[in-house]
Amino acid sequence: MNMQEIRAIAKTMDIKTSRMSKLNLVREIQTVEGNNACFASPGAADCDQNDCIWREDCLVASKKLAAA
C-alpha cells in the first residue's frame, strides 16, 4: 500500500499524517483501531494475522529492518 492510500485511511480516523513515516503512521492507525501496533516489528514473519490489510507491506518492511 502506498503512502497516499495510508494517509487516506488515517484521514478518515482524524490522524494527522504530516511528517510521519510509513511505519509510524501504520502503527498509529493500528492503535486507533484498537489493535497491537505491530507493523514491521520483530517476529513479523511469525504473524498469524493472515487477514491483516498491512500484512504484505509488514513482512517486506520487517525484512528490510532486520537486514539494516
How would you explain this protein's 3D organization?
The mean pLDDT is 93. Helix content is 50%, strand content 0%. It has 68 residues and is an all-alpha fold. The chain has helices at residues 3-12, 22-32, 55-67. The protein has one domain. It has three helices and no strands.
- What class do helices, strands and sheet pairing give? mainly alpha
- Share of helix, binned: 40-55%
Low-confidence stretches: none
Can you give the mean pLDDT? 93
What about the largest sheet? none
In the residues, how many domains can be counted? 1
Helix and strand element order: HHH
Radius of gyration: 12 Å
Q: How big a fraction of the residues is strand? A: under 5%
What would you call the shape?
globular
The number of helical elements comes to 3
| Topology, number of strands | 0
What's the N-to-C terminus distance? 22 Å
